[in-house]
Give the backbone structure.
Amino acid sequence: MQETYGKELILNLYECNPKKISSEGEIKKFVIELCDNVIHMKRYGEAFISHFGHENPLTSGFSLVQLIETSSVTAHFSEYKKSVYLNIFSCARYDPIKTRDFCIKFFEAKRFEEHLIIRQ
């Protein structure tokens, strides 16, 4: 039996609360709570959060990169589409269902898609 290296949860959250996905403060609050209280991963440094892509409404929005000691949390926020595109990859164990439910609730998503990839 081969050991797994880790897992990656990919979430697409749709029809999110526009105030939450367009606020740097809310995004920072989200990633701190996610890492500290949901997936229980040690954050490595501060989150990089930047708003860019302004030449096209489709690409305009915040992006987030938070390194964790076991890999990373990345997300892209589309204000135009009211959507969040989130990847959580770690070689440490975490509960993907609890994680998914937290993300949906935090951003008040009305619809979502999810994929879980096991890395060998």
DSSP finds three helices and six strands in the chain. The chain has one domain: 6-119. The domain at 6-119 is CATH 3.60.90.10 (S-adenosylmethionine decarboxylase). The radius of gyration is 14 Å.
